[in-house]
Amino acid sequence: xxxxxxxxxxxxxxxxxxxxxxxxxxxxxxxxxxxxxxxxxxxxxxxxxxxxxxxxxxxxxxxxxxxxxxxxxxxxxxxxxxxxxxxxxxxxxxxxxxxxxxxxxxxxxxxxxxxxxxxxxxxxxxxxxxxxxxxxxxxxxxxxxxxxxxxxxxxxxxxxxxxxxxxxxxxxxxxxxxxxxxxxxxxxxxxxxxxx
Length: 196
What we know:
Elements: H1 50-53, H2 62-80, H3 89-95, H4 103-120, E1 121-123, E2 130-132, H5 144-162, H6 168-183, H7 187-194
Antiparallel strand pairs: 1-2
């Protein structure tokens, strides 16, 4: 169990280096020792640094972002399945999403697969290979890593609601059927266990 923590997470960080941040490197030229030089200009090119000179990236519609994430996540899971490990039904459902699927459908299928990945598989930390787990969740609720995994997945789902990608009724069903049911707790006990 607990394969989500090191799972595929699409991230495309933007690194911006501003020329104005290099201004301090030239400060000695303008020191009091060189007052006669009258350093009246400084390297202030923030208005024309490289990042601001570039045209803005085209905004990709959320539906396209989710469809791309769905495809990449499904490919990642499929490529990491260990030898002889069958693909879960949730992977097949994610792969079956067509171009007409709405944002909620894409987000729900991604979330369902995330839960199943965390609950059904162990992931080798070196290779990323997913193998079926035989972990007994209800007997191990007092282990911090178990609670942390459930908390991560639960919080992720709540953030999907806040972002408007999944409605609350859909999320309740997913959480009840895929997270709470695995613990043997009632919904109220589950919330209390996680500290909500």
